[in-house]
C-alpha cells in the first residue's frame, strides 16, 4: 500500500462500503505520476471458503498503473444479514450489515 498516495491511513468512514468504487476524499494523488484522477479496480478475485466469499482487489492509478492500495473483504450471511467488514489503507475500517430479505425489518415502521 502506498502511504504517499493517501491523506490518512485507515480513515473512519462509518458504514460506507463501496464495492466497486473508491474513497476519493482520502486520495491525495498518485505518488508516482503526481496526477489526481479516478482509480481503477484490477486483479479482482473472489474465493469461497467455509460459506464465506473472500473478495480481493487492487486500486491502481488510471494513468501510470501504480498500485495505490490492496483491499480484502469477506461476504457471509448471519441470521438474515450480511456483515461486511473491510479494512484498507485508503478506505479505512468499515463494518456494514445489510438485510438479505427483500424488505429490511430494521427499516419498517411499527404498525401500531
UniProtKB/TrEMBL annotation:
Molecular function per GO: zinc ion binding
Record keywords, A-Z: Activator, Developmental protein, Metal-binding, Transcription, Transcription regulation, Zinc
One BP term from GO: positive regulation of DNA-templated transcription
Pfam families: Churchill (PF06573)
Family: Belongs to the Churchill family.
PANTHER family documented for this protein: PROTEIN CHURCHILL (PTHR31931)
Protein name: Protein Churchill
Organism: Latimeria chalumnae (Coelacanth)
Amino acid at each position: 500500500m502506498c502511504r504517499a498516495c493517501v491523506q490518512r491511513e485507515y480513515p473512519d468512514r462509518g458504514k460506507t462500503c463501496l464495492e466497486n468504487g473508491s474513497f476519493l476524499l482520502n486520495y491525495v494523488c498518485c505518488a508516482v505520476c503526481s496526477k489526481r484522477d479516478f482509480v481503477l479496480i484490477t486483479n479482482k478475485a473472489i474465493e469461497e471458503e467455509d460459506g464465506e466469499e473472500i473478495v480481493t482487489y487492487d486500486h491502481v492509478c488510471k494513468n501510470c498503473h501504480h498500485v495505490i492500495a490492496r483491499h480484502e473483504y469477506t461476504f457471509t450471511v448471519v441470521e438474515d444479514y450480511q456483515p461486511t467488514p473491510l479494512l484498507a489503507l485508503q478506505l479505512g475500517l468499515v463494518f456494514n450489515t445489510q438485510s438479505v430479505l427483500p424488505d429490511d425489518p430494521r427499516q419498517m415502521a411499527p404498525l401500531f
